[in-house]
Amino acid sequence: MLVHSFESLAARDGDGLRYAVFLAGCPLRCIYCHNPDTWTTKTGKEYTNEQILKKILRCKPYMKAGNGGVTFSGGEPLLQAEELIDLILQLREHEIGSCIDTAGNVALSDAVKKVFLVCESVLLDLKFATQEEYYTHTAGSLQRTLDTLTFLTENNIPTRIRTVIVPGYNDTEESICRYVAILRPFKNKITDWELLGFHTLGFVKYDALQIHNPLQEKSALPRERLAELQSFAKSVL
Ligand code: SF4
Questions:
Q1: How far is the CA of 35 from the centre of ligand 1 (A)?
Q2: Residue 221 near residue 198, CB atoms below 8 Å
Q3: Mean pLDDT of all residues in the chain?
Q4: Residue ranges covered by each domain of the chain
Q5: Which fold has domain 2-232?
Q6: How are strands ordered across the β-sheet holding 45-46?
Q7: Which of 20, 122, 168, 189 is most buried, by the most CB atoms less than 10 A from its CB?
Q8: Which atom of ligand 1 is nearest to the CA of 125?
Q9: Which run of H or E residues covers position 46?
Q10: pLDDT tens digits for 21-58?
Q11: For the whole model, what pTM was predicted?
Q12: Rounded to an integer, what distance in angstroms lies between the CA atom of residue 219 and that of residue 199?
């Protein structure tokens, strides 16, 4: 598999203490991306599943103690769905669960479906609430994410939705209501809907890679505003 990086103490990529594997390559170009260094597979290094498994097993004690597991993130991990299936199954034999952190914006191939069916849980980004905004700000398809969400909920796969809130783009109550209209039919089938505040920690990567940063003049979303919107979102969903 083409791996961008490993993180052995990840606390925000699923339940408990996680071992995170960031896979290289992503078909989207989200304006707020803080990992532009994962976009191209050229930055990835090839590892066999056995090599990755060995790294993960070294951290099994703390994952178990912290009620965690492994999270495959990126980039877009589902671009390497075929290879992922085998690794997730091997992890299951070691009683380690896998979470897939995805934008759900790849075709629902047999391999992608199988990844979902063998993993333990999914973090699914719902990026923007209209097709026009979704395409303009990510170059992806809202419908693909919704198709993914439908598959996940129909198959009772624990799914937490995540949405990045960007000042001036989707940080109003009206915007939240548009997401709610999409999510309400899935309300009783999703685990949670978490709002994440836009931050500027990834700006340094755009500079280093000499990639245009469309939000370079933006400030981070204030925590208080994020809390207000999260509370509003919970009250109206
Ligand atoms: S899907 Fe994730 S990695 Fe890909 S561009 Fe969007 S935020 Fe960045």
A1: 7
A2: yes
A3: 96
A4: 2-232
A5: TIM Barrel (3.20.20)
A6: 45-46, 2-10, 18-23, 69-73, 98-102, 121-125, 159-165, 192-197
A7: 122
A8: 1
A9: strand 45-46
A10: 999 999 999 999 999 999 999 889 999 999 999 999 99
A11: 0.96
A12: 7
